[in-house]
Design goal:
By secondary structure, the chain is α+β, with helices and mostly antiparallel strands. The protein has one domain: START domain (Alpha-D-Glucose-1,6-Bisphosphate, Chain A, domain 4, 2-Layer Sandwich). 28% of the residues lie in helices and 42% in strands. The protein contains three helices and eight strands. It has helices at residues 14-22, 24-34, 123-142; strands spanning 2-10, 38-41, 49-54, 60-69, 73-83, 88-89, 98-106, 109-118. Strands 1, 2, 3, 4, 5, 6, 7 and 8 form an eight-stranded antiparallel beta sheet that branches. Helix 1 crosses helix 2 (24-34). The chain starts with a strand and ends with a helix.
């Protein structure tokens, strides 16, 4: 896996950007750009396990919320790749990888940085889709 960083500046407070990232409706909006129909199951709390699953193909990943600082930082460690909406394990394409979201704010402008370990065979796809998802997060947060 290759660690890759993506970032965007958003004209909104970091607390609001955090809400856009993790509220169910807005999460599904931007996350579906990365993987169509993506939704999450579980409670975002340090030490909890969450599932991120595509409603379209049933594939997903089960992740540990390893570090959580609300409105500023969250680190997920991917524990298992799943299929059939989390019912069965599949090839460990993402297992062991990390994914973090860092938000910092200066004068009402939030810098959102996503750092993720990407499997080699997915690098091109994510290089295309993550920037588009970031643009959608920006649109949602800025009310466009």
């Amino acid at each position: 896996m290759k660690e890759t960083n993506f970032s965007i500046q958003i004209n909104a407070p970091k607390e609001y950007v955090w809400t856009i990232l993790w509220e169910d409706e807005t999460f599904q909006d931007w996350a579906s750009i990365v993987d169509e129909g993506t939704y999450k199951k579980g409670t975002m709390k340090e030490g909890n396990t969450m599932e991120f699953i595509s409603a379209v193909n049933g594939y997903g990943v089960t992740s540990l919320v390893e570090n959580l600082q609300p409105h500023e930082f969250v680190l997920f460690r991917h524990r298992a790749d799943t299929k059939e909406s989390g019912q069965q394990e599949r090839d460990n394409e993402w297992t062991g990888g990390k994914e973090s979201y860092t938000l910092s704010e200066v004068n009402g402008v939030t810098l959102l940085v996503i750092t993720m370990d990407i499997p080699k065979e997915q690098e091109e796809t994510f290089a295309d889709r993550i920037p588009k998802a970031l643009e959608r997060i920006k649109e949602l947060a800025e009310g466009e």
